[in-house]
Design a protein that fits this description.
By secondary structure, the protein is an alpha+beta fold. It has 2 domains: 203 residues, Ribosomal Protein S5, domain 2; 171 residues, GHMP kinase, C-terminal domain (Alpha-Beta Plaits), CATH 3.30.70.890. Helix content is 41%, strand content 24%. Strands 3, 4, 5, 6, 7, 8, 9 and 14 form an 8-stranded mixed beta sheet that branches. The protein has a 4-stranded antiparallel beta sheet with strand order 11-12-10-13. Helix 3 packs across helix 4 and helix 4 runs antiparallel to helix 5. The longest helix is centred in the last third of the chain and has 25 residues. The chain is globular, with a radius of gyration of 21 Å. The protein starts with a strand and ends in a 9-residue tail after the last strand. The N terminus is likely disordered. It binds alpha-D-galactopyranose. Alpha-D-galactopyranose binds next to helix 5. The site of alpha-D-galactopyranose has 11 residues, from helix 5.
Length: 412
């Protein structure tokens, strides 16, 4: 059982959000405790959920994520030595990145996200100053909400700030993606880093992963919100299956004789895939269908047709489960329960979000009924699995930004 924000014990409850101002104050105080001085710079980068357009970013497809109001926060001040000294408040662990040598992968593992970004700046010919830097976060680590992209983008944002640079947004996101490829060994697409950089309050982001164009999709209707349901499990499979899916998509494009699946049509697939391995055919079918669903969902969001968006989300989940094979029983269970609560209970749609094999589902819900939906959904999930899910709601939030020094009074 989990204690709700009001202190009562019962069904799993929604986690209360801390305001950004409170998170910044807490990070600044943690910095002062650790380094015995006030930070000179503060920056934050949000995590993301993907509303629709899953496993298509590395196929040049269309995705529609949004930034959430869960962040990585960084605080820093200058030091004279040519080194970036890092303390992670979350892991209670130190790391140091010497600036006079080539930047390489190292320990602890989480430091590689920062190392990769620092390396990217050095590759651009930037001379970086020495820093002491603290990391804090309220994003669940490894929960599929892009905590790693947020860590990379926060690093880039604070390096820009401390070194008086203003890296153009697309370059910044691509530099962070490269850090993930080369220093974390994950051949990810561009969605997570773009969402963290370009997030905009009250807007979903329609991202064209081929042209890198980001189109905000306004969502000013506050009667709907996004419920994030973390299954709190992660299957190890994810790390080996992700590169495999990417390779299978590339193979499908090659068999079709095109640069990427972005250009493929269902007819083309039907005509040419007769003798393909079943898995390759299924992967391509998912990607082609998912890009079409994303395009359609963007139109429906603009028209306020949440019922229609919800149907597309369920279809997206089915396709990820059956054709792309990246779901798992816990994610499927959440989606099934959400469907059973249904429109009458305040749920428009639900699907897994992110890479899959565990992590989170998102549901679009009637904002007034979010708590009731969470109680029912969380309670039934816990009842069937014995796992307490973590749940919170978020509206679309702003992207990475430098922050003002805390305006709030210190905690007494
Ligand atoms: C992970 C990757 C993204 C994207 C999603 C699946 O989050 O980092 O680039 O491929 O999986 O949509």
């Amino acid at each position: 059982m989990q204690t709700s924000s009001t202190g009562s014990v019962g069904a799993p409850a929604l986690l209360a959000a801390r305001s950004l101002a409170v998170k910044v104050r807490d990070a600044a105080e943690a910095f002062a405790r650790r380094f015995r001085c006030a930070p000179s710079w503060l920056a934050c980068a949000p995590g993301r959920i993907n509303v629709i357009g899953e496993h298509v970013d590395y196929c040049d497809g269309l995705v529609m994520p949004m930034a959430i109001d869960r962040h990585v926060i960084m605080a820093a001040s200058p030091i004279t030595e040519p080194v970036i000294k890092i303390f992670s408040e979350v892991n209670c662990e130190d790391a140091a990145v010497p600036l006079e040598r080539t930047i390489e992968r190292g320990q602890p593992a989480w430091s590689n996200y920062l190392r990769g970004v620092i390396h990217g700046y050095r590759e651009r010919g930037e001379t970086l100053r020495g820093l002491q830097l603290l990391i804090d976060t309220d994003l669940p680590i490894g929960g599929g909400l892009s905590s790693s992209a947020a860590l990379e983008v926060a690093t880039a944002t604070i390096l820009d700030l401390a070194n008086q640079r203003q890296t153009p947004q697309v370059e910044k996101a691509l530099l962070c993606q490269r850090a993930e490829h080369d220093f974390a060994g994950v051949p990810c697409g561009i969605m997570d880093q773009f969402a963290s950089v370009f997030g905009r309050e009250n807007n979903l982001l329609l991202i064209d992963c081929r042209s890198h164009e980001v189109t905000p999709v306004p969502l000013h209707d506050h009667s709907v919100t996004f419920l994030v349901i973390n299954t709190n499990i992660r299957h190890n499979l994810g790390s080996s299956e992700y590169p495999l899916r990417r390779a299978q998509c590339e193979e499908a494009a090659q068999l079709l004789g095109i640069a990427s699946l972005r250009n493929a049509t269902p007819t083309q697939l039907d005509e040419k895939s007769g003798d393909w391995p079943e898995a390759i055919k299924k992967r391509a079918r998912h990607v082609i269908g998912e890009i079409a669903r994303t395009r359609r969902a963007a139109d429906l969001v603009q028209g306020g047709d949440w019922h229609g968006v919800g149907e597309l989300m369920y279809a997206s989940h089915d396709s990820l489960r059956d054709d792309f094979e990246v779901s798992c029983s816990e994610l499927d269970l959440v989606v099934r329960i959400a469907g059973e609560i249904g429109l009458d209970g305040g749920v428009f749609g639900c699907r897994m979000t992110g890479g899959g094999f565990g992590g989170c589902c998102i549901a679009v819900v009637d904002a007034r009924r979010a708590e009731a939906v969470a109680a029912t959904l969380g309670g039934r999930y816990q009842g069937e699995t014995g796992i307490v899910p973590t749940m919170f709601v978020s509206r679309p939030a702003a992207g990475a930004t430098p922050l003002e020094l805390p305006l709030l009074p210190p905690k007494s």
